[in-house]
Amino acid sequence: MSNFKILFGIEPSLIQKTCVIVPFLVPGLLKALGIGSLKKGKLYATAHTNTFTFIKAGIGALFIGDCVLHLEETACQEMVYFGACGLVQETDRLTIGSLVSPRECKAFEGFTDVLLKHTDNITAHYPDQELFRSFMDTEPGHNIHPVTAMSIGSLKCEESYKEFFGKKGIEVVDMECSAFFSAANYMKKKAVALLYATDIIGKKSFFEPLELQDKLHIEHAIQTASDTIQSFCRR
Question: Of the candidates 56, 120, 140, 158, which lies 20 to 30 Å from 16 by C-alpha distance?
């Protein structure tokens, strides 16, 4: 048995051209994507449709970044990352349940750097521009908003950075997107990300129970995102 199969539950030869990578499963996602069960490996779990390989990679920059690196010797050429994010502030176009696609994501992934406010060497990472344009044009995803994002290494500390985010033009924050972009670029594979907003920093925390309206907006966002991903992969 190969190391890849131990980690992913399948042999690398089964990975398809397009991979959809998520950090965790939300209720109804597999059904919305037309996926039955997952093949579970030591770290990752995988499944297939007619048009893409689905990978549940785990939460955090380390798991997402390593997942992408492991795909080097496979047929994967392009990747879609689908995850959650928090809004720096609510606006007319961005609210709970909004779908966004980072056109740029700054890397502030390290917990110690966040804790000690080491902000001098934050780097920016980007999706593949051709893939990004193609993804943004995909039906039914015309309500996907391009944003400037930052991946941050502490949920506890993020509220103390709200003014900093504003000064840097950051609209959404997550934990994995910059690692996804940097790993994909390093491996010379095309990548694009799709995120749905679940909270608003300083206003609606990620750990608070969702109001019914917000819950419905998020459920609708996940269904729309699933439809968009499938349409994109069929192109």
Answer: 140
* Residue 36 and residue 47 in contact, taking contact as beta carbons nearer than 8 Å: yes
The tokens describing 3, both together, are: 């190391």
DSSP 201-218: TTTB-TTSPPPHHHHHHH
Tokens of 24: 């965790």
Which tokens belong to 212?
A: 């019914």
Tally of residues, the chain: 235
Angle formed at CA 130 by CA 124 and CA 135, multiple of 5 degrees = 95
What is the C-alpha separation between 171 and 77, in angstroms, rounded? Answer: 29
Which of 71, 107, 103 lies closest to 188, judged by CA?
71
- What pLDDT digit, counting tens, does each position of 100-152 carry? 999 999 999 999 999 999 999 999 999 999 999 999 988 766 789 999 999 99
Cα separation, 132 vs 136, in Å, equals 6
Strand partners, 233: none
End-to-end CA distance of the chain: 34
pTM score: 0.95
Taking CA atoms, 223 is separated from 29, 102, 194, in Å, by 8, 19, 13
Reference 78, options 213, 174, 191; nearest CA is 191
Q: What is the model's pLDDT at position 141?
A: 63
Digit-coded pLDDT (tens) for 162-181: 999 999 999 999 999 999 99
